Amino acid sequence: MNWRSGRTLNLALVGILVLGSAALFQSTVLPAISLPLVSMGVRPSLVLLLVVSWSIVRGGMDGAVWGFIGGLMIDLLSGGPLGASTLALTLVGLFTGMAEVNLSRHNQIFPTTITFGASLVYDLICMAMWSLAGWRFAFADTFLAIVLPTAILNVLLSFVTLPLMSLLNRLVGGGRQLEW
User: Fold this and answer.
1) What is the pTM of this model?
2) CATH, domain 3-171, list 1.25.40, 1.10.1760, 3.40.1350, 3.40.50
3) Is 179 left (phi over 0), alpha (psi -120 to 50) or beta?
4) Which of 171, 162, 179, 177 is nearest to 11 (CA)?
5) C-alpha distances in angstroms, 47 versus 16, 34, 72, 120?
6) Helices (H), 103-145
7) Residue 135 half-sphere exposure, CB side, CA atoms within 13 Å?
8) ∠ CA 101-107-23 to the nearest 5 degrees?
9) With contact defined as beta carbons under 8 Å apart, do 54 and 158 qualify?
10) Of 41, 32, 43, which Cα lies nearest the Cα of 137?
11) What is the dihedral sign for C-alpha 49, 60, 95, 20?
12) pLDDT attached to residue 99
């Protein structure tokens, strides 16, 4: 095993640990919290936030890998169709990292806009997959009552996750550094 493949393996192991912990917390602890928004079905998407932040910091390929790992963790812990979150988070991780190539990462609006869009895209892909699997729900009501407020909540929490992922990137010896 050469240096590059060992480094990639270490980053994947870090991803499994971080994303597995977040998926477990998101699946077990968050539903038990009785805050007004949470009781209405609005919960932060912790794994999505970590994938988007990592993708902004590290780029599309690392974002896609983390998206795959995080999505698989969510799929294994949820009652939803297997593969819905995996597909959605892999695509979100890839395209979030690709967007930074064309947009200035030095702009404060960039991460919030990307997080908002990624949150919407993630939920819309999952809803499409659930619909294909035979789940029935009122699309407009679900979008307005859960998806949109969740995207706003995710944007607010991105101010915490992005600096944390930047710090993790420095700790694991990341090649790219996000500068503000």
Assistant:
1) 0.88
2) 1.10.1760
3) beta
4) 171
5) 11, 20, 11, 14
6) 109-132, 139-142
7) 15
8) 70
9) no
10) 41
11) negative
12) 74
Q: Which residues contact 150 (CB under 8 A, 6 or more apart)?
A: 42, 43, 44, 45, 119, 123
Give the pLDDT confidence of 55-83 residue by residue, as tens digits: 999 989 999 999 999 999 999 998 888 99
Q: Residue 166 corresponds to which tokens in the numbers above?
A: 């930047």
Amino acid at 105: R
Residues 6+ apart with CB under 8 A from 75: 81, 82, 83, 84, 85, 86
Structure-block tokens of residue 148 = 């949109």
Q: Under the phi-then-psi rule, with left for phi > 0, alpha for psi from -120 to 50, and beta for the rest, what region is 41?
A: left
